[in-house]
Specification:
With 150 residues, the protein is α+β, with helices and mostly antiparallel strands. It contains four helices and seven strands, in the order H-H-E-E-E-H-H-E-E-E-E. The protein has one domain.
Length: 150
């Protein structure tokens, strides 16, 4: 009886260990954001899209958040996303409680451009920042540590 109980507990713990890494499959992304466009991008907010790269198990190994390409001439304005909005999107795609323990934060500044990285046990989250047009994020990326992109 004790062995059976121990086995059930071990199965449950294994499930909990795997569950957080099941963040966003293509089906979940399609259900939440609709069908991807012809470039494979999902529109997550007005003028903001994501692109997912998949590992062999069809789980995302990397998701990039970026401004939607514009056909207008105001390209420089459309290349900057509000930091708060990007944080909301990142939190939707990989909730804080699924990232694992926060290990470190690194920021590299170079004049008007910066790169910030937040390292967690399961993922790294990178943001490319700019001071242009009042500041903001030009792109962001979630990269899963346990998965290798194809």
């Amino acid at each position: 009886m004790k062995r059976r109980r121990l086995f059930i507990v071990m199965l449950f713990v294994a499930y909990l260990a795997v569950m957080p890494s099941q963040a966003q499959t293509p089906n979940k992304l399609r259900k939440k954001y609709g069908a991807p466009d012809n470039k494979g991008h999902y529109v997550v907010r007005p003028d903001i899209v994501i692109a997912a790269a998949l590992a062999d198990d069809q789980q995302p190994c990397k998701i990039i958040v970026k401004p939607q390409e514009s056909s207008t001439l105001r390209e420089s304005a459309s290349n900057v996303m509000k930091s708060d909005t990007v944080t909301e999107v990142l939190d939707e795609l990989m909730p804080v409680d699924q990232r694992g323990k926060h290990l470190r934060s690194i920021i590299f500044n170079a004049s008007c451009a910066a790169m910030s990285t937040d390292e967690y046990e399961r993922v790294s989250i990178n943001r490319a920042l700019t001071c242009v047009l009042g500041g903001g994020v030009t792109s962001a990326e979630i990269r899963w540590k346990a998965r290798t992109c194809k």
